[in-house]
């Protein structure tokens, strides 16, 4: 069951990425296109998506907590940008580091919202079951 959720999430992520890359084929208003794609740097977008997926994989496969996922991937993002800064053929940029952190933070935000929704749904289901069990006892 959990694998289906991961597969569905991955498919939705691929569809969103394809829609972004092929947005010229969409019939979006020009104002919306200009607002979204003012000066897109594909490298920064790649950092955002890459660290979002990396956070998802680390949390799902390695079973790390959300806090340890955030701090370990943030540390990794910092080290990778510092390494790129000192290489002669790469550029370490703060915008890439912030895109990394934003990708990790978005994953954690979506995961926390999902957990709250799941907890509320389970509480509602258990309340409905206890009410129906109480009603069945009163009727008999």
Could you explain the architecture of this structure?
Helix content is 81%, strand content 0%. It is mainly α and 140 residues long. The protein has a domain at 42-131. The radius of gyration is 21 Å and the shape is elongated.
The first-to-last residue Cα distance is 37 Å
- Rounded mean pLDDT is 78
Give the overall shape, derived from the CA principal axes.
elongated
Strand content: under 5%
The SSE order reads HHHHH
**Biggest beta-sheet profile:** none
Q: Please work out how many helical segments DSSP would assign.
A: 5
Radius of gyration: 21 Å
Q: How is this fold's topology laid out?
A:
Elements: H1 2-21, H2 30-36, H3 42-61, H4 66-86, H5 94-139
Helix pairs in contact: 3-4, 3-5, 4-5
Defining traits:
mainly alpha, 140 residues, 5 helices, 0% strand, 81% helix
Overview in brief:
81% of the residues lie in helices and 0% in strands. The protein is mainly alpha-helical and 140 residues long. The chain has a domain at 42-131.
């Amino acid at each position: 069951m959990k694998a289906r959720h991961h597969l569905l999430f991955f498919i939705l992520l691929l569809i969103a990425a394809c829609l972004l890359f092929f947005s010229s084929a969409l019939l979006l208003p020009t104002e919306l296109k200009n607002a979204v794609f003012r000066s897109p740097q594909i490298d920064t977008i790649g950092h955002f998506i890459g660290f979002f997926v990396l956070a998802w994989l680390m949390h799902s496969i390695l079973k790390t907590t959300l806090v340890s996922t955030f701090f370990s991937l943030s540390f990794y993002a910092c080290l990778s940008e510092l390494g790129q800064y000192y290489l002669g053929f790469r550029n370490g940029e703060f915008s890439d580091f912030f895109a990394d952190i934003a990708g990790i933070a978005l994953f954690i935000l979506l995961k926390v919202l999902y957990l709250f929704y799941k907890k509320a749904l389970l509480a509602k289901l258990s309340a409905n079951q206890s009410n129906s069990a109480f009603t069945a006892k009163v009727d008999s």
